[in-house]
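Subgroup meeting minutes
Present: P.N., E.W., G.H.
Scribe: E.W.

1. P.N. recapped why we're keeping a running log of single-chain structure predictions: easier to compare across weeks, and new members can see raw inputs and outputs side by side.
2. G.H. added today's entry (283 aa).
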Amino acid sequence: MSDEPLIPATSSIACLGPEGSFSHLVTAQRFPDHELRMIGSVSEVFDFLAANPAAHGVVPIENSSGGFIIDTVDRLVDDRCHLHILEELTLDVKLALLGHAGHEVEVIYSHPMPFFHCDEWLQQHHPKVKRVPLASTAASAKRAVEEMNAATIGPRQNAAKHGLDVLQFPIAGEVPNITQFFLVGPQANTPSAQHNRTAMVVVLPDKPGSLCRFLQPFSDAGVSLKRIESRPLRGQPNKYRFYIELEGSTAQPSTAEPLAQVQADGAQVRIVGSYVSGRRFES
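Output recorded in log:
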């Protein structure tokens, strides 16, 4: 794929662990030759990158069933964050029910997102089973190993890794389950016409119609906005900033011109990255 970020082989890649989590699966496929660092939470990934300026990280941004990953958005919009989005990665998630063959399932452990995606399937097939959310699908698999009447929902790779049986695969496979991730790092991409996405943090003037005036130039230019999320300004009650993604790159006049127009109208804009989206992997 053109205009890929160049990540030195000596750079470690931090991601949400433990080993076997969806973040780990997509990171291992994208960077098979790099040192991977398993980190306990999204916030800790950002903290690790702040303390290790040469490192890069992979963090989830959105799940097709559960929506935005607010922890990631909040760190990106924070003015103290100096990281840039370098690439968007997409994981086509296939979920499995893992457990102990021949034993009745009384409790299921998983991350909240798989529970959300599989809710209808669980109501139909395991309506009375207790659901216990944990920090990751990998941690859930480790927990299920310890209890013969426990199961877990997660990638089927966790079966062989933890000595569990695949009781059902796929679960709710008829419903698309896509998780998207950002590759973030200290050095921004040089904007290119090949980049098909730009992310920004926007603070608008506190007056009626500000958001409408911000959106109109992009609409007039035929630029599609893909994500928009409002987040509170730290220490300023009832004040907000916006995390916004749009199609295109600041290297393209169709994007650069409306962007210059909204800044002239008083919008404060910080570009978080111009990058390529669409690289796909499967779990």
